[in-house]
Amino acid sequence: MDIINLMKQFDFSESETKVYLTLLQNGILSGYETARLSGVARSKVYEVLANLVSKGVVRVNNQDKVSYYQAESSEFLIEKLRLNTEKALHDLSLATNFFQPNEFNDQLWHMSDYQAILLKTQQMIEQAEEEILLHIWVEDLTDQIQEILLRKEKSGLKIVIILFDLDKKYTFSKKMKNCYIHGFEEEKLEERHQTRWINLAVDNQEMIYASIKDCLTAEATYTSNKSFVFFSREYVQHDAYCLRIEEKAMPELKAIFGENLIGIRDIFKSFE
């Protein structure tokens, strides 16, 4: 994303961004020089400069009949935007605390933004009080989610995780008591057309299931419908049952069912 579009997210117009960058690159300039170098019309540039001064990211020095302008550093700009954003979020939090959400119902709610899906997953884990059952791929296991899971386990919550890692590193599994390695990632991705997923059930009360192609293509369903929560929990529990058996008896299972346990996994084929 280019700088102009990024700055628009912080309420800077295209002209304001052009003028700020021109001053940043060229140092102290008059209004006339700023217009010439930035491409912003001279009839408009003084209004733009005044806006930037009022936003605190450009300084002005009035000498005789000529005003000169200088941009604050990019570090100053970033810090000011950060402080403004934090204050706005704080004020918004205070304002919205007055409004309390209605009780959850059992409707199915659709989500289609990857970051929103991760945030909802993180929020559900953070608010869990009794148990967390989770399928997740390492690509979606953010540092924040890892930290919360470790903290929740330490506080005594019952947690079961089925972890998928195409690189077979499974680093996080070594940090948790009941984090099982799935081990059939390639086959699952092939079955699902290279789409990974998150399946999370919390406190036997709510669940989210997400299909994730990449950070731009994702969709999820969230609900507190008891039937969907039941199937979400069963999905994780069933995998945990199987993986616990594999951990203890893999050599014997391979001898009976073959490499990759194909004799078990091909459910449409009768045992010989």
Structure in words:
The protein has helices at residues 3-8, 14-26, 31-38, 42-54, 74-96, 114-127, 143-154, 185-191, 226-257, 262-265, and strands at residues 29-30, 58-63, 66-71, 109-111, 131-137, 158-164, 179-181, 196-202, 206-214, 217-223. By secondary structure, it is of the alpha+beta class. The protein has two domains: 3-76, Orthogonal Bundle (Arc Repressor Mutant, subunit A); 108-265, Endonuclease, Chain A. A seven-stranded mixed β-sheet has the order 4-10-9-8-5-6-7, with helices on both faces. A three-stranded antiparallel β-sheet has the order 1-3-2. Helix 7 (143-154) links the parallel strand 5 (131-137) and strand 6 (158-164). The chain is elongated, with a radius of gyration of 27 Å. It starts with a helix and ends in a 7-residue tail after the last helix.
List the helices and strands and how they pair.
Blueprint lengths: L2 H6 L5 H13 L2 E2 H8 L3 H13 L3 E6 L2 E6 L2 H23 L12 E3 L2 H14 L3 E7 L5 H12 L3 E7 L14 E3 L3 H7 L4 E7 L3 E9 L2 E7 L2 H32 L4 H4 L7
Parallel strand pairs: 5-6, 6-7
Antiparallel strand pairs: 1-3, 2-3, 4-10, 5-8, 8-9, 9-10
Helix pairs in contact: 2-3, 2-4, 3-4, 6-7
Which strands sit side by side, in order, in the main sheet?
4-10-9-8-5-6-7
What is the CATH domain class of the largest domain?
A: Alpha Beta
Coarse structural class: alpha+beta
Tell me the number of helical segments per DSSP (H or I, 4 or more residues long). Answer: 10
Instruction: Give the radius of gyration.
Output: 27 Å
Q: Helix coverage percent of residues? A: 40-55%
- The CATH architecture assignment of the largest domain turns out to be 2-Layer Sandwich
Distance between the termini: 58 Å
The amount of beta strand, in percent, is 15-25%
Number of structurally distinct domains: 2
Q: Quick one: how many beta strands?
A: 10
- Mean pLDDT across all residues, rounded? 88
CATH homologous superfamily label of the largest domain: Endonuclease Chain A
Q: Any idea what the shape is? A: elongated
The CATH topology of the largest domain: Endonuclease, Chain A
Biggest sheet record: 7 strands, mixed
Order of helices and strands: HHEHHEEHEHEHEEHEEEHH
